[in-house]
Amino acid sequence: MEIISEFVSKTAAMMPQLMAGMGVSIQIFVVTLLFSLPLGLVISFGRMSKNPVLSFITKAYISIMRGTPLMLQLMVVYFGPYYIFHIKVTNSYRLWATFIGFVINYAAYFAEIYRSGIQSMPVGQYEAAKLLGYSRGQTFFKIILPQVIKRILPSVTNEVITLVKDTSLAFTISVLEMFTIAKQLASSQASMTPFIAAGLFYYIFNLLVAVAMEQAEKKLSYYQ
Hints:
This protein has 224 residues and is mainly alpha-helical. It is built from 8 helices and no strands.
């Protein structure tokens, strides 16, 4: 009981700093989802395009984004403007570089998820929609996309849960998200308590995301 009370008291003392870091982590999470999900859909269109040049470019982009570490991509986005174009970057650019790095990385993963879902749809649905007088755009957005979303939701859920944990990689370019602050506190206090507290925060965050996505799956289920 003494160990637990000591942990609670230490965590309470660190709470303002950890919550500030958690706020940054949530920003990264929300911005990444907000932009990478629609961008991934656009990239999937390019990947499936009959234009060989466009298809090759998007395929190469997806291959690079999925084949190299996110940590490296964040460093390239942050340091690239200075070393390649000799543009001086400021500290305020750190968070923007994090947003850009996460969005372009996760868009590549979502693009492949979208592509697998779209290509799994029976051709007969497109033909039936054409007979009913639907345009290609109406067919996709009114008939195909809702079914695709239902099919890919489990895969999207896995990526979203991974994203929660990946926000900690922002420490690579010294963004003060929760893991970075926990690491600083652990170093200054010579204690594991900040890491344990941060781990609990990540777990609770992921638990809330998993519950929300599970509810979304139930609402989209045709059998409910």
